[in-house]
Amino acid sequence: MLKSLAIIFSAVLGLASGAAEARTITDAAGRTVEVPDTITRVLAAGPPASVLTYVLAPDKLAGWVREPTEEQKAYLLPSVRDLPTYGQLTGKGGSANVEAVLAAKPDIILDVGTVNDTYRSLADKVQAQTGIPYVLIDGRFADSGKTLRDVGALLGAAARAETLATYADQRIKDLNDSLAMIPADQRPRVYYGRGPEGLETGLSGSINVEILEAVGAENVAAAAGKGSLTQVSLEQILSWNPDVIIAASGKFAASAKKDPLWADVKAITTGRVFTAPSLPYGWFDSPPAINRVIGVVWLQKLFYPDRFKGDLKAETRDFYKLFYQVDLTDEQVATLLKGAVPASK
């Protein structure tokens, strides 16, 4: 089992004066990394780390992996909207180079998500090339509270991390308590479609469909095996015949509802095609990070409306205020939920 991030407060410099200048940590890959005692600039290796740094310590974010769109900026703090963009070090579409990393002058590089030999090797390589401490964090959804606390301790934001972690822990507990009372035959069979045609999805075990499995739904694409993201055919989707379709893009949701080739899918005939909210980050995926905490609240209401007693609009406002530190207008709430819930709700 992968080791969780263990913060070891051991000063390796300045012991004589009693002022610790550095400390040693063991990251989720079991790597021993020496990091500054006080971290003021964080370079995110990919989008999940970018989101995590923003919600915990926005003032420490060195820049963006991808430049936020104008639509995204409206849901972010003004102080971070125009930070520089340096590209992505890890995952699909990696574009940052050593020069860009050095120019950002970070104290550490933070990478959050899947932890395996590939990412461990990348971390070692980048750290050796740049001389900048590279810390790998396991991004599994079930461990959201622990991830927040561990990274909060790393970044010197323990108090804020505890507040956010307490919220995440409670939402996951509420979810699990509800699921314990829902029999298997009352749980939906769901297809998650990415891209404008909806033909990319996550296989069993994919971090991109992690919260679908967390809310007790059956991922129909699991029939195609274990793995990560993959392309599937319309014929496969027709054979799976999902009860619900979650679309990553509104374009796919709209086209699937009108396309005669999709007409016989149960989710289409029953009007159960929904678009995942995506501003400033996705509630389902994109990226598969701490932003998904609000996603489980949404999916509970969507899949088990008789058992969900909360107010989704109020919960949305609370989450955005707490995690993103923005006060949503009525119009912004409506934008987020457009296509995400049944029109009559």
Automatic annotation (TrEMBL):
Q: Where is the Fe/B12 periplasmic-binding domain?
A: 41-307
> Hydrolase among the record's keywords?
no
Q: Name one Pfam family in it.
A: Peripla_BP_2
Q: Give the superkingdom in one word.
A: Bacteria
- Gene3D superfamilies in UniProt: 1.20.58.2180, Nitrogenase molybdenum iron protein domain (3.40.50.1980)
Query: What PROSITE patterns does UniProt report for this protein, alphabetically?
Result: FE_B12_PBP (PS50983)
Q: Which residues form a coiled coil?
A: none
Task: Give the protein's recorded name.
Answer: Iron ABC transporter substrate-binding protein
Q: Could you tell me which species this protein originates from? A: Ensifer adhaerens (Sinorhizobium morelense)
